[in-house]
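Ticket #4471: structure output looks truncated?

Reporter: J.K.
Steps to reproduce: submitted the chain below (527 residues) through the standard prediction queue, then opened the result file.
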Amino acid sequence: MPDDLDRLSHAELKGLVVKQWEQIVELQRMVAALRDEVARLKGGPPRPKLRPSGMERGTEPKPPGGSGDRKRPRGSTRSKLSIDEERTVKVAAPPRGSRFKGYTSFLVQDLVMRPHVVNFRCERWQAPDGSMVTAPLPAGIKGHFGPELRRFVLAQYHQGQTTVPRLVTLLCGLGIFISKRQVVRLLIEGKDNFVQEARDVLRAGLSSAAWITVDDTGARHKAANGFCTQIGNAHFAWFGTTACKSRLNFLALLRAGHDDYVINAEALAYMRQRALPAHLIARLIEHPDRRFAGQTAWKAHLERLGIAALKVNPDPVMVATEAALWGSIKANGFLSDTVIVSDDAGQFNVGRHGLCWVHTERLIHKLDTFTDANRAAQATVRELVWSFYRDLKAYRCAPADQRRAAMRARFDRIFSRKTGFVTLDRLLARLRANKPELLMVLDRPEIPLHTNGSENDIRCQVTRRKLSGGTRSDVGRDCRDAFLGLLKTCAKLNISFWDYLGARLAVLDGPTIPPLAELVLLRSRPP
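Returned output as attached by the reporter:
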């Protein structure tokens, strides 16, 4: 704590309060974990787990006639299948006097899985000059394992969420002689084209998306805790694992592989928004260099300007670096008019920002109530929020100026209520301060009201973390992130991940899959 709080500026006090608030939240998390552990050791029950509120499903309009629960027939299976073989089954001894009445069809789907070893006898010719000419191997043959086997390994590991030891056991049981080290090599070696395609998908999405949703979860890399960030929308998904989840880190991920730092109009506007002193901004403006290749060059520039030596709050190096990253994002053509929808985590609050209503309602749902009056106040507010959320969904389908003004006034009435439940009243006041982000949908009806898409996408990373722990090498980390992103992108583009792997691994007689980045750009174009 500083000696004299009265001498601190408003920004310094705000930074101090935010830091202490983060420490309080972390202490509360640790205390809750300790309570669970003590209860487990004593044989007592753990804390009750609250069920999801169900606001998204509960506010969906019900179709007339009460037919919402009826399942549609799945349709004919025969029309979806291509017949590879026809066999005629004859009656061994039909009764005497019987007449032949044709055939009846009975379809059987089967899977052929067996080892297939090919010995390529490559011709060798000796040229007149004495050199040897050897016939090249067919396309798709790299190493001693064919493209079908490599496709099977990639699909089982990333789509089937199989662990490496189980995958080795499965392959050996099928008659393939392969070791754990060889399976790992099939998963990570020579996958630069997949990593580059995942990066191109991110660039295509950020350059064309009207909105993106973001989320992060824990991830381990090289025996250290880190974070995996998801970025995506209805047409693409991308994952990136890093050591931290600060705003600097998020802005660096939004550069989509570019490593430059740019001082432009967007960067200067960011500095002013973050209250960087005017004389420091003037130093950056007066210098002729505006673009810097890499972190080393940028840090050297800040040292030459004397900014790196300053010890004030807010940290000018951090603010200037965030601004230069934001300038790089804009200079490379990303997020031109894109809304970033998040769960109110501070690192995602950049650019045009919207908030998730499901997470907002969850804060009210998770409040601890102790009296009947508390529970009644909580139920009333939740009912009002559910009704407002239902009308927001209706507004997205038919936006109107008059309705927009009415929704803003209604938001103020709901979140200005005084219920007598002190904790709830404080929460409502805090949520009212987020009015521009929560009502971003009124100005941009195309954006979603929640981050359920990111929540669903990132579950595959959580499952992989639980099954396999963390990654040990940077190549392994990059491959895991890239393939998870490509898997989710294929699903959103209605492309079979099996066919996609076959097209990229040059499997014979497979469909041609164009670059996913081109498909993302095509889907993102307005009709």
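Triage note (M.O.): checked the attachment and the full token line is present. Residues 357-443 form one domain.
Status: closed, working as intended.
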